[in-house]
Design a protein that fits this description.
With about 210 residues, the chain is an alpha+beta fold. The protein has one helix at about 1-30, and strands at about 50-60, 60-75, 85-90, 95-100, 130-135, 145-150, 155-160. It has a domain at about 55-160. The strands form two sheets. A four-stranded antiparallel beta sheet has the order 4-3-6-7, with no helix packed on it. A three-stranded antiparallel beta sheet has the order 2-1-5, with no helix packed on it. The longest helix is centred in the N-terminal third of the chain and has 31 residues, at about 1-30. It is globular and about 55 Å long. The N and C termini lie far apart (about 135 Å).
């Protein structure tokens, strides 16, 4: 009787330990998995008296960057840290220097429950407006990224803007305009005077006696 009780107890302990392994195994793997790639956190804000005012043009709910204006404040201020669907990000290399987030009127940043259910779709409205946002200047910045955090779409611009306050897309040229194709040497590759015409020696190919020195 005692032997049967010992065997039953040992078997129960073994099954319990096996069950614990089976349960704990997936949990450990889940904790070991790397986090999904997302947006880097906001950098520490840095105050500056020099600021950039961005003109944001919204057409049918889609924002684009218009003209930029540089202003100087009496007291240094940092870029505010707020929530928003869109973001302006200043980079130098791969280092994020600053980020300004904002929303646009009727920009679809509210709750979306029921939009994908039959008979429960809400009417959609799109705004046409102009707004302004302000961001602190960073002398080290070389690129500006305009990010739609809802869709992941990114536009990259050279920084700072030109003298008229306009931005130029970083991939607008890509080096194709001056890639050497327009003057690759084909127009003057020696074909025009390759020794076949002119004074190539065909008129007097050595048939006459050479002139004695």
């Amino acid at each position: 009787m005692r032997r049967r009780l010992f065997v039953a107890t040992a078997l129960g302990s073994t099954l319990g330990a096996l069950g614990a392994v089976l349960v704990a195994g997936p949990v450990r793997r889940a904790f070991a998995e790397p986090p999904r790639e997302g947006f880097p956190p906001d950098p520490a804000p840095k105050a500056n008296t020099k600021q950039w005012v961005f003109e944001v043009l919204v057409k049918q709910g889609v924002p684009t960057i218009g003209t930029l204006t540089k202003v100087t404040l009496k007291k240094a201020e940092a870029t505010p840290r707020v929530m928003g669907r869109y973001a302006l990000e200043l980079y130098v290399g791969t280092e994020l220097l600053d980020r300004l987030r904002f929303n646009v009127p009727l920009g679809g940043d509210g709750p979306r429950e029921g939009d994908d259910q039959p008979g429960r779709k809400r009417p959609k409205f799109r705004a046409n407006t102009k707004m302004f946002v302000r961001m602190a200047d960073h002398a080290r910045a070389s690129r500006l990224r305009f990010v739609d955090r809802a869709t992941g779409e990114v536009e990259v611009f050279f920084w700072p803007p030109d003298g008229t306050g306009k931005l130029r897309k970083a991939d607008a040229d890509g080096g194709k305009a001056d890639a050497g194709n327009s003057d690759a040497g084909s127009s003057d590759a020696g074909n025009a005077d390759g020794g076949k015409t002119g004074d190539a020696g065909t008129k007097d190919g050595g048939k006459h006696d050479p002139v004695e020195p």
